[in-house]
Amino acid sequence: MQFEQGANPTRVKAANQAAIRKTIYHLGPIKRSDIAQRLGLTLPTITTNINSMMASGIVRETGSDAPQTRFVGRKAHPVDIVPESRHFIGIELQGARRTICLLDYRGKVLYAREDGEDCPDYDRNIRLSCRMMEEALDACALRMDQIAGVGICTPGLVDNERGVLEVRPSYSWRHKDVRGDMAALSGYQGPVSVENNACARAYGAQLFQRETLGDAQTFAYLFINQGVACPLVLNTASSFGSVVGAGEVGHMVMVPGGLRCDCGNCGCLEAYSSDRAVLKRCAEALEQGGAPALRRLCGERPPSMEDLLAAQAQGDPDAAEIVERAVYTLGLAVANINNFACPSKMLIDGKLFGRPENRERLLTVVRQNLCGVVRSGTEFIFVKPEPLSGAVGAAAMAICKELETYIET
Q1: Per-residue confidence at 70, pLDDT binned at 50, 70, 90?
Q2: Backbone dihedral region of 64: left (phi > 0), alpha (psi from -120 to 50 degrees) or beta?
Q3: What contacts 1, CB < 8 A, 6 or more positions away?
Q4: What is the per-residue pLDDT for 374?
Q5: Are the C-beta atoms of 81 and 98 separated by less than 8 Å?
Q6: DSSP for 65-123?
């Protein structure tokens, strides 16, 4: 059992600084008095901490928002994060592909690259990722010691405290020390954050999609790819974004005794609605001589999700049935999630929803299965899948960790 730590002066000082930095990061440019009012701290405490941040170069005044007057006195200058003061690297490690990005403190992408080599070997994935890090640094004329943090995300069950990938069933990766292996091979001595790739996307949304999220106190991020996951993020007045759990909803049992999942259980959501499961159904249909439009589109190569949606658009009945079954099962799962957690918003990220009729079908199934008490409680927002979103989210994790790092005054 983990107990809450006592509030000794050192912890209070560190907590105050972290709260002030996060407030500036999320709400800047912002005046010192507004920070004090929001956090319930004294103005001298705010001023002392901001002065230390300015001395370290990560915060600066952005100009006066007060009109010129004849009265003598210091004008109220808002403060904000200095984007170029910190740089971060994010990597999404999927096995089938690797993506990397290098961001500034505000999330501006300075470098990005995707490597599409299908490589089921874990050690080779790590080596390829380290090589991509070197290329990113060279392209941006930066040294390894100028990187404030590295974030790595991967599908599977991740122990983010130890930086260990506990299991990735589809590649038989187990107990992989991702943090230690990346540090040893790259030579990077700074902080390395490791997380599930759906959780990383939630961090990315939290930092870089503020207009979409608005003032939502909670949001969920449903990510449908080779697996299905849905982490929940909590927001309060004094704490910006805490990702709760791995969100491994892909292993909730939707059909007792149903199709076998890669995890070894039967009837899991992933066995019906993940991209991998859907494409498996497509391959089976093609083997049986069905899905004529899909056959014309993909020829002799394995079908893709893009092929499936195109075949659906062309009226292929087998393709339509495969999609409808996957969307229906996902709709039941989404209703279950919302009946349980009722987040303010749910972001839905999946290639299946590239077509409007699939989005409408999902929402219809959800509405039919929501508890009446929470029927209007959640806003559903469909997110366009982006190849770089995992790497950007991984870098966002590193930024979140850096915002908690204490700066000596």
Answers
A1: very low
A2: beta
A3: none
A4: 54
A5: no
A6: -SPP-SS-S-----EEE-GGG-EEEEEEE-SS-EEEEEEETT--EEEEEEE------HH
